[in-house]
Amino acid sequence: MRSTRVRRVPKQQPRQGSESRRDFEVFGHTFLQVTYNTFAFTSSVWTHFWQPSTMAAAAAAVVAKSPKGSLREDLTCAICCDLFREPVMLACMHHFCKPCISRYWRGTQGPVTCPQCRKEFSSKQFQTNYLVTAMVEKVRATTSDTYIKNLEKQLKETLESHRQKKEDVINSIRRDKDKMDTIKRFGADLEARVKGEFRALYQMLHDEETCVLEQLRREQEEELEKVQRHLEAMEMAVRELEDNMRALQQASGATENVMLTELPQLRSCVLVDVAPEFDTNAFSNKYLAPLQYITWRKMFKSLEPGPSPLTFDVDTAHPNIQVSRDKTAAVECDVMIPHTDHNKRFLQCVNILAAQGFQSGRHYWEVEVGSKPKWDLGVASEAVDRQARIKLSPETGYWTLRLRNGSEYSAGTQPWTRLQIGSSPQRLGVFLDCDERRVSFYNAGDMSLLYSFTNGPRGKVFPFFSPCISDRSQKPPPIKLLHYPHVALSG
């Protein structure tokens, strides 16, 4: 059975006359003010408490103490020390449970008073406060086991959601850091490779400079030695002539006194060759020539990869392709060229391969396409079907670049990848890295990258070309394989 505890306050004497009237006015004002504040507070709690984002905070606020007491304490009956049950308000503005205040008044004799402030009333009257009732029910609901379990469930779900989001963010951060590490590592590798390539170029240039300067020094010494030998011979001839002149002068003086019976013995004069001519033009021509261009051409022999001197394989040429005698030019023609049938030849498409195949290392070659309005070029796998009409793509064994209508460039992907190229290149460079499976296309005029395949071929491949069928009204220009012969400095 629940014990009844009453908080008592010192008894106050009832006031008469104007004081009673003033108390009533104060009571009315206070009642309205408290009722308004209670309504506003209840509305605020109703609005705020049921927001999902503040549910946990509201639940904590119900239980947490504040300097003025908790909401639960304010809604506790001073008689039963529990939440109000059927809360009623006395004229003194104090609230009690209806059963509690009724039982209290039945158990007391004398005037009807408030158990809390001892204010006396003329009769046992109270008023049901529905706002407080709603607040008590709300507090009671928020402290029920069912509510707490639901709240705990929502908190756990929210916590799990935040934990998952945190894990996702951490994973994203980890991926970004991995990307940064990959970029830095890849950049460092590329930087080392670029430095190595240029270091090799610097070394080649230094070696070439040393060689040219050494050749210049030797030729200069040879010319100086020629002049020096002639100079020494001339000086010796001068000395011998001077000796003969002195002997002749002495003999001339002797003829004045005695009869000169014989000429003095004279030294035979040194025969002096004509001074050698120094041909400044012949000496300087080789060094005043376009030395940079000559050196650049000489470097081709040492470049890795250097331009490969390709030739066409006539056994692979479509019957409508005519190949030049040196096998470096191919052009489409109207009539079929006599040919031998075998499985190497393309029969459905106007294609041709180079005779040189690659399956390892790095290789580079250049092709002159001139003003041809349409063509295809790149690399083809050795195992491509040459008897059928097949769309050019990596899936079918082709890694190509194409031109159509004179200005429409595309990479041979599936589907085609349109390329925006400013000026139409007349020469194209193809770079093949078999080890890294990379096929890249360049404008050979300025070495700007046009497109690069990173899913390159496996196994042996051959340079691939297709002059296509052009407009019959004009003579079609050929596709040419460019060769760069070695140029040496020579006298």
TrEMBL record:
<dbReference type="InterPro" id="IPR043136">
    <property type="entry name" value="B30.2/SPRY_sf"/>
</dbReference>
<protein>
    <recommendedName>
        <fullName>Zinc-binding protein A33-like</fullName>
    </recommendedName>
</protein>
<dbReference type="Pfam" id="PF00622">
    <property type="entry name" value="SPRY"/>
</dbReference>
<keyword id="KW-0862">Zinc</keyword>
<dbReference type="InterPro" id="IPR001870">
    <property type="entry name" value="B30.2/SPRY"/>
</dbReference>
<dbReference type="GO" id="GO:0005737">
    <property type="term" value="C:cytoplasm"/>
</dbReference>
<dbReference type="InterPro" id="IPR017907">
    <property type="entry name" value="Znf_RING_CS"/>
</dbReference>
<keyword id="KW-0963">Cytoplasm</keyword>
<keyword id="KW-0863">Zinc-finger</keyword>
<dbReference type="InterPro" id="IPR018957">
    <property type="entry name" value="Znf_C3HC4_RING-type"/>
</dbReference>
<keyword id="KW-0479">Metal-binding</keyword>
<dbReference type="InterPro" id="IPR013083">
    <property type="entry name" value="Znf_RING/FYVE/PHD"/>
</dbReference>
<dbReference type="GO" id="GO:0008270">
    <property type="term" value="F:zinc ion binding"/>
</dbReference>
<dbReference type="InterPro" id="IPR050143">
    <property type="entry name" value="TRIM/RBCC"/>
</dbReference>
<dbReference type="InterPro" id="IPR006574">
    <property type="entry name" value="PRY"/>
</dbReference>
<feature type="domain" description="RING-type">
    <location>
        <begin position="77"/>
        <end position="118"/>
    </location>
</feature>
<dbReference type="InterPro" id="IPR003879">
    <property type="entry name" value="Butyrophylin_SPRY"/>
</dbReference>
<feature type="compositionally biased region" description="Basic residues">
    <location>
        <begin position="1"/>
        <end position="10"/>
    </location>
</feature>
<feature type="coiled-coil region">
    <location>
        <begin position="206"/>
        <end position="258"/>
    </location>
</feature>
<keyword id="KW-0175">Coiled coil</keyword>
<dbReference type="Pfam" id="PF13765">
    <property type="entry name" value="PRY"/>
</dbReference>
<feature type="region of interest" description="Disordered">
    <location>
        <begin position="1"/>
        <end position="21"/>
    </location>
</feature>
<dbReference type="InterPro" id="IPR003877">
    <property type="entry name" value="SPRY_dom"/>
</dbReference>
<dbReference type="InterPro" id="IPR013320">
    <property type="entry name" value="ConA-like_dom_sf"/>
</dbReference>
<comment type="similarity">
    <text>Belongs to the TRIM/RBCC family.</text>
</comment>
<dbReference type="InterPro" id="IPR001841">
    <property type="entry name" value="Znf_RING"/>
</dbReference>
<feature type="domain" description="B30.2/SPRY">
    <location>
        <begin position="290"/>
        <end position="486"/>
    </location>
</feature>
<dbReference type="Pfam" id="PF00097">
    <property type="entry name" value="zf-C3HC4"/>
</dbReference>
